[in-house]
Amino acid sequence: MEVKYIRKPTSRRSVKERPAPTRAPARHHESELQRACVQWFRLQYPKHALLLFAVPNGGGRSRIESAIMHGEGVTPGVSDLILLEGRGGWGSLCIEMKTDSRNSKQSAKQRAWQGAAEEYGNRYEVVRTFEQFRSVINDYMGLPQTTGRVVVHHADIIYDDRAIRLLAMEPDQTGKSYR
Predict the structure, then answer these.
(1) CA-to-CA distance for 113 and 115, rounded, in angstroms?
(2) Do the beta carbons of residue 91 and residue 62 sit within 8 Å?
(3) Where in the chain is the domain with CATH 3.40.1350.10?
(4) What is the CATH number that goes with domain 29-141?
(5) How confident is the model at residue 179 (pLDDT cuts 50, 70, 90)?
(6) What is the pTM of this model?
(7) What are phi and psi of 159, to 5 degrees?
């Protein structure tokens, strides 16, 4: 390995030689994995492409920008990707991207957010490889679609996956019915 030297003046009288700084290139393995997964999903499921989105929680920001984003609703610990489509009784699929490195672990805030997401009927997966992502997505997309709340106006019935109820239609002061 060849060591290159740079000359840096330390004073007007002398010049000291020292090795040039060597910095490893920044590694963004998690980001590269996430980009490949999103690209594959959008090609594989084009009708659902807009429903898979990233949550921009990471990255360095100034204190002012962080405060503004916190006020706008940025929440620490939110999963990296959310597929906003209900399947198999789940409300959505939340995916946290991690690499297969031993140091790539969920933070306490990520675990807390996972618990809250699961408590309210969402599926949460930690994905470490492209193959695992593909398997999770194909499994999830193979489940029957969760209809959530579908209002059938003709029969005045609301179906919400837990019960079917008839609604009493009462007009408001303008004569329009409401629910």
Answers:
(1) 5
(2) no
(3) 29-141
(4) 3.40.1350.10
(5) very low
(6) 0.66
(7) -115, 125
